[in-house]
Specification:
- This protein has 5 helices and 4 strands; from the N terminus they run H-H-H-E-H-E-E-H-E.
- It has 175 residues and is α+β, with helices and mostly antiparallel strands.
- Among the domains are: 48 residues, Orthogonal Bundle (Arc Repressor Mutant, subunit A), CATH 1.10.10; 73 residues, Alpha-Beta Plaits (2-Layer Sandwich), CATH 3.30.70.
- It starts with 26 loop residues before the first helix and ends in a 21-residue tail after the last strand.
């Protein structure tokens, strides 16, 4: 006797967090973002000239993208070596039971921890730390060892430095 196959149709769920944000549907907004990524200190009047708009209209578009959370601010990038922190390391931390919140608090309290990410896998956190010397690594690690096990990797070189994500390509032409 043949077994009847049951067809199941999965409903496609809407994922608004994966859709292109409304302001990015406009090619001029994307062009403004591209120009600001290349030169965040560009004046609004220069931006306006390059995108073919008035300065007030360009300023308003920037403000709307800030309000929408697309532009989260402009940052100054300082060379850590120039500040006396030439060594970078990544530290993975596997916390002891019940110590997860304490690890996050410790990471937030140490100025040498420049990034802290909660991750999947056996380790729960990955930190980027900047160090004055290898001797100072022990001082940092000892504080984390009170809450869990660490695995450390010293950065030898950075063949791909931090960079911007690509902007929506289909929408980059100003209309």
């Amino acid at each position: 006797m043949p077994i009847a196959k049951k067809s199941v149709t999965l409903k496609e769920r809407s994922r608004p967090d994966l859709q292109v944000a409304h302001p990015l549907r406009d090619g001029r907004n994307v062009r403004i973002l591209a120009l600001l990524q290349d030169d965040p200190r560009m004046t609004v009047s220069e931006l306006a000239r390059r995108v073919g708009m008035s300065a007030p209209a360009t300023r308003e578009r920037i403000q709307r993208m800030e309000e929408a959370g697309i532009i989260r601010g402009c940052r100054l990038e300082v060379d850590p070596a120039a500040l006396g922190y030439p060594i970078a390391a990544f530290v993975r931390v596997r916390p002891m039971p019940g110590k997860l919140p304490k690890l996050a608090e410790l990471a937030a309290s140490l100025p040498q921890v420049v990034e802290c990410h909660r991750i999947t896998g056996e380790d729960c956190f990955i930190l980027q730390v900047r160090l004055e010397s290898l001797d100072s690594l022990d001082l940092i690690l000892d504080q984390f060892l009170a809450y869990g096990q660490t695995t450390t990797s010293i950065v030898q070189s950075t063949p791909v430095p931090p960079r911007h994500l690509p902007l929506p390509k289909a929408l980059t032409d100003p209309s």
